Amino acid sequence: MSKKKSGDNELIGFKEFLEHDDVKKQGIYESKKFRGFDLITFLERESERLSCQISLFEEKAFILRKFPQDVKIISEQEEKNFALQTKAVEKVMDKNSVFYQNLDMVLQDHFNYSVSSSAE
């Protein structure tokens, strides 16, 4: 008899699980009725968002065509690059720079030629 009672106790939990699962399934079926409405709402919002993006991009494209800035920006950047290259070359070719000293040492060791003696 004790075996039968313990089996019933185990089945009580199992029965509750099955009953709870049935309630869950009923809720799922009921919510499917409203999924069409959610889908339509989502599609309307997405359409509105895309329309706003299209108008924004059209406006930006118009402004870029009407007032191009790329030529001015490119010329300014080329001037900055030239100035930076000039500064870099001046620093590298300074007789006290590390690069100049290492170059002089390499040329002296391998070719018996000194950059510092030829520059003077």
What's the number of extended β-strand segments?
0
What amount of the residues lies in strands?
under 5%
Radius of gyration, in Å, reads: 40 Å
What is the multimeric organization of the chains shown?
Answer: single chain
- Helix share, percent: over 70%
User: What number is the mean pLDDT?
Assistant: 79
For the sheet with most strands, the description reads:
none
Task: List the secondary-structure elements in sequence, H or E.
Answer: HHHHH
Number of helices: 5
Shape: elongated
Poorly predicted regions are: none
First-residue to last-residue Cα separation = 115 Å
- The helix/strand class is mainly alpha
List keywords for this structure.
120 residues; mainly alpha
Short description:
The protein is an all-alpha fold and about 120 residues long.
How would you summarize the topology of this molecule?
Elements: H1 2-32, H2 35-66, H3 70-93, H4 98-111, H5 115-119
Report what the structure shows.
With 120 residues, this protein is mainly alpha-helical. The protein has a domain at 69-120. It has 5 helices and no strands. The chain has helices spanning 2-32, 35-66, 70-93, 98-111, 115-119. The longest helix has 32 residues, at 35-66. 0% of the residues are buried.
